[in-house]
Amino acid sequence: MKLDLSLYLVTDKRNKTDDEFLEIIEEAIKGGTTVVQIREKEGETLDFYNLALKVKEITSKYNVPLIVNDRIDVALAIKSEGVHIGQTDMPADVARSLIGDEMILGVSASTVEEARKAEKDGADYIGTGAVFPTATKDDAPSITKDDLKEVTGSINIPTVAIGGITLENANELAGTGIAGISVVSAIMNSKDPKIASENLLKIYNEKIDKN
Amino acid sequence: MKLDLSLYLVTDKRNKTDDEFLEIIEEAIKGGTTVVQIREKEGETLDFYNLALKVKEITSKYNVPLIVNDRIDVALAIKSEGVHIGQTDMPADVARSLIGDEMILGVSASTVEEARKAEKDGADYIGTGAVFPTATKDDAPSITKDDLKEVTGSINIPTVAIGGITLENANELAGTGIAGISVVSAIMNSKDPKIASENLLKIYNEKIDKN
């Protein structure tokens, strides 16, 4: 499966029922979302496993890769296409050895040093941010457009920008060398996740990817 | 490695520095603890992974099996001897498929039905409780000595009793058919974890195992 990072949805289950959550994901994919990451930092493992199985049914139906945040055990159990780890999760080289060569490994990296280390340790892509102020992860380091450009220029694997990206500000990421935009709220909290995805993908394709 | 469940320590890192925590584990092993389980339900994966690596150094030095609670990814990453899962963690059959045939699989089971299912799903032992009131897991179901005896009699794999076991009440478990006693506070919060272990193991060997 060629990894198309153009529009990368990181999910957020908070304040949503399972059905609402799953419907948003399906609508987002219908609107063009190219990657889905599930992320549950709280709750029981069984609940995450069961939810992840349901998400996997949807992503498989549309042939969109599913990435599991942090929990490599859940990723292996549901046979997701990949895992994504942060700087306070399992070390990237250990993660790579656990998932083997075939699964996708994403790593959050906010500096050139972290990005280079992630690439060396076996990452297939990095997630970098926060490129704009964000309420979802208020402890995320914030970086400038120049920082982002420096990071993308320092590695040979693709970079997804994350953090506070909206329909209004996404075009500011033109020229930074990113391979995709990653959003949480802009889709999860949108009134129409399908249209939000269509519009975000359009901005990425027309304003960012070609610049 | 033959699994000797006689004195099974479940650790609790709360309110302890790494050094204090590791010293308690080493002293407990010197006092006769036969299995160590590490359990961290909060905090970052990287912290658990790093702590688990340090515990593994100690348990390997004394040839005592190390069991990781819930986090199969951490268990695989540090090459622990086994994993232990509760009824709200990964399903036991999925856990078994992730860890392969060689690693030890323990499952918490408080009823005959849960115990039989655990055995069928590939558990090597079950942990059953709480046999006495406990402050460590105040949401644990409590069971009587008759319940415990019914569980041990219903399966062909060994049972470890857990929950509020102390030097004062452990002898009450005689005649229940258990293969070991599991404690948290009786060792973790003891002034002398080595002597506490010696005394608990003595009670198990003299009052419970032979009855």
UniProtKB/TrEMBL annotation, chains A, B:
Catalytic activity: 4-methyl-5-(2-phosphooxyethyl)-thiazole + 4-amino-2-methyl-5-(diphosphooxymethyl)pyrimidine + H(+) = thiamine phosphate + diphosphate; 2-(2-carboxy-4-methylthiazol-5-yl)ethyl phosphate + 4-amino-2-methyl-5-(diphosphooxymethyl)pyrimidine + 2 H(+) = thiamine phosphate + CO2 + diphosphate; 2-[(2R,5Z)-2-carboxy-4-methylthiazol-5(2H)-ylidene]ethyl phosphate + 4-amino-2-methyl-5-(diphosphooxymethyl)pyrimidine + 2 H(+) = thiamine phosphate + CO2 + diphosphate
Record-linked InterPro entries: Aldolase_TIM, ThiamineP_synth_sf, ThiamineP_synth_TenI, TMP_synthase
Transmembrane segments: none
Gene Ontology molecular function: any one: magnesium ion binding
Domain Thiamine phosphate synthase/TenI: 7-187
Top-rank taxon, per record: Archaea
Gene3D superfamilies: Aldolase class I
GO cellular component: cytoplasm
Enzyme class: transferase
Keyword Magnesium: yes
One GO-annotated biological process of the protein: thiamine biosynthetic process
Annotated positions binding 4-amino-2-methyl-5-(diphosphooxymethyl)pyrimidine: Q37, I38, R39, E40, K41, N69, S108, K137
Positions contributing to Mg(2+) binding: D70, D89
Keywords: Magnesium, Metal-binding, Thiamine biosynthesis, Transferase
E.C. numbers: 2.5.1.3
Cofactor: how and how many bound: Binds 1 Mg(2+) ion per subunit.
Cofactor: Mg(2+)
Pathway field: Cofactor biosynthesis; thiamine diphosphate biosynthesis; thiamine phosphate from 4-amino-2-methyl-5-diphosphomethylpyrimidine and 4-methyl-5-(2-phosphoethyl)-thiazole: step 1/1
Binding site for 2-[(2R,5Z)-2-carboxy-4-methylthiazol-5(2H)-ylidene]ethyl phosphate: T134, A135, T136, G164, V184, S185
Function summary: Condenses 4-methyl-5-(beta-hydroxyethyl)thiazole monophosphate (THZ-P) and 2-methyl-4-amino-5-hydroxymethyl pyrimidine pyrophosphate (HMP-PP) to form thiamine monophosphate (TMP).
Family: Belongs to the thiamine-phosphate synthase family.
Protein's UniProt name: Thiamine-phosphate synthase
Protein's gene: thiE
